[in-house]
Amino acid sequence: MFLLVSLCICGLLLGGDAQDQAALWRGNDRSGRCQYTFTVLSPTEASCPQTGGGEIEGLKARLSMLEVLVSRLTGGDSAGPSVGTRAQAELQQALNWAVGERNLLQGEKERLQRELEGLQRRMEEMRREMEVLRNTPCPPQTPMVPPSPPLQDSGLMRPAGGSSPMSHLVARPNRQGDTSSLRDSAWQYGPPGFQELKAEVTEVPAWYPDGTEDNTGCGELISVGEPVTHRKADTIAGKYGVWMQDPQAVSPYGSSMIWRIDTVGAEVRQLFGYEDMEQLSKGFPSKVLLLPELVESTGSTLYRGSLYYQRRRSRTLLRYDLASESIAARRDLPHAGFHVDEQGLWAVYSTSKVKGAIVISQLNPHTLEVKRSWETNIRKNSVANSFIICGKLYTVASYTAPNTTINYMYDTESSQGKAVAIPFRNKYRYNSMIDYNPAQRKLFAWDNFHIVSYDLRLGRPQVN
Description:
Elements: H1 2-13, H2 16-21, E1 22-28, E2 34-40, H3 53-73, H4 80-135, E3 221-224, E4 228-232, E5 241-245, E6 258-262, E7 270-274, H5 277-282, E8 287-290, E9 301-303, E10 306-310, E11 316-321, E12 326-332, E13 337-341, E14 344-350, E15 357-363, E16 370-379, E17 385-389, E18 392-396, E19 403-411, E20 416-425, E21 431-437, E22 442-447, E23 450-458
């Protein structure tokens, strides 16, 4: 009340002009209390002086710029929606690329880790095998063995249980009329693996067939050409292996298909297929089959759409059908190796019944039943490799000697064998597989990581 009276007195003192321009307001403030407001216009100033105008204007400008930026970010202006959508799309694309790169790098890291673990396992296996070989004493020399005459055997021979792998064959009987003895090196029984076997034999004269050569026929072997290298294996698993071509291919694979198995490792079961020799040389397989049972050694072959091989650490021979990708037949033979020539499917092995001599059996390709067998006078522990051409078994004297010989031939048609001396070259000094391919009429070989082939010269068949 005192405030109201004071205001009224001030108004009376201001004079008449000011009385017309004074105003009294009464109302509640935000808290609900009664508030009186008295307003008097200035009699001398038309407007109030402005203080801090530059700062206010600068603040307004900055607020305007901030408003524009916020409007763009939130899509407020006319160009905002397209710019914002494009920016979001670019950000999403960059994020997707980064996530994809991360996944690729993670996958590559896992693959390299698996390869590293596999190499470490293989190195450990080879280290253990090396220790076993170092700790194994040298075999004693066997007593002198008199030369054996060629066998005249036309009857059916039954296969018997045996001991050592087929691929370590060899005997070189004395040439006709030589009364000196033939000495064979002893076979070292032990853990599975490759080892060099050297035969101490009498020298034989070079043999030349009668008549002119005829490479299209089925005469005796005259000569073997220089090795032609097609590819070198990429990893330690390819130090030893076998490569094949089906001479009578059936659907779904064509006659030009080449197959390969790397035989180093504890789990040998991958069969790689290549469309042709060019793809093999480039290392681009078109088919990889996982065999249901593990592979032993390098004595496998292909014939009429089936892979024939020995199951690991057993006497069981298997026929694997490529079309159905399943085992189609099995048969027990002691450590046999398969061969194919113009006359069909063969198995070469040894038995204890024949005291270490090599046995040749012709097999039924569907059932693996033995159709006929021949017992030779070739000692198994005096050869390194063998192959069959036109029903004739040939043996190679050494795995590793760079210049060795094909030293013996056994003819199943006449059931007779004889010593020969055909030069043969192990270019890379460890030939773990040699086999004849009747489709190309060449020898296929696997020489210390290298896939090679040899051209052949055959003589005319002899007319009786």
